[in-house]
Amino acid sequence: MHTTRRVFALAALSSLAVVAAPTAQAQTPIVTSVIGAADGLSVDLAIETPVPDNNEVAAQELFNLSFGPEPTVTLPPTGGSVSESVANVDESAGPIALVADLLTAAADGALGPDGFATAETSVADIFLGEALPLEAEAGAQQNGLDILVADLITATCSADLGGVAGSTTLADASVLGETLEAEPDPNTEFVIVVNGF
Q1: Could you tell me the pTM of the whole model?
Q2: In angstroms, how far is CA 54 from the centroid of its own chain?
Q3: How far is the C-alpha of 60 from the C-alpha of 44, rounded, in Å?
Q4: 178-184 LR contacts (CB < 8 Å, sep 24+)
Q5: What is the SS3 assignment for 177?
Q6: Measuring CA to CA, which residue among 51, 54, 29 is closest to residue 160?
Q7: pLDDT digits (tens), the chain, 197 positions
């Protein structure tokens, strides 16, 4: 069993889309340039665990897990469509594992009177938690710590001459076993501290 002295984890999905306004001389409003960016999954962990020792004061071993943001995309000012994806993420640091099936980031935009910019990031089937040994995974009883589990996390932002809007959607998502709201406010962040597992 590991004792976690300190764990900090941040799973961040962010999207930004801004539409530039036309000049004052234009009779009909038009979009003259766009800005759009999408940053994918980002995780930072610092984990301190005791090293088995016969001494009364056990040494501590520090594990660091850093990932992302990945993938990232930036929309050219002239618009268009850009996207990137990363499949089969499998990272670990000591007793903690990060696994995700698919990470995507995309941005689209266009100029003119109907101009717009949108950006979206998503993570499918993510698990962040204690990595169990293979023999434990095969058994019926598992007592690992699930820090973050979700079927899908999506963040979207869009902008046009009418304004800017954003949304976040979580499907079957939980942190430390607590179910998360399906549609939290955009740019929601979770800071998790665990003192032992």
Answers
A1: 0.76
A2: 41
A3: 19
A4: 180/150
A5: coil
A6: 29
A7: 444 434 434 444 444 445 555 565 656 788 888 888 888 888 887 777 666 666 555 566 677 888 888 999 999 989 999 999 999 999 988 788 999 999 999 999 998 888 898 999 999 999 988 876 544 444 444 556 788 899 999 988 888 888 888 888 999 998 888 888 899 887 677 666 665 54
Identify whether the C-beta of residue 120 lies closer than 8 Å to the C-beta of residue 75: no
Cis before residue 133, ω within 30 degrees of 0? no
Which one-letter amino acid corresponds to residue 134?
Answer: L
What residues have CB less than 8 Å from 131, skipping those under 6 apart? 92, 95, 96, 97, 144
Dihedral angle, C-alpha 129, 170, 154, 158, nearest 10 °: -150
Rounded CA separation 176/194 (Å): 9
Sheet holding 14-19, edge to edge: 14-19, 34-50, 60-75
- Whose CA is closest to 119, among 11, 17, 12, 35? 17
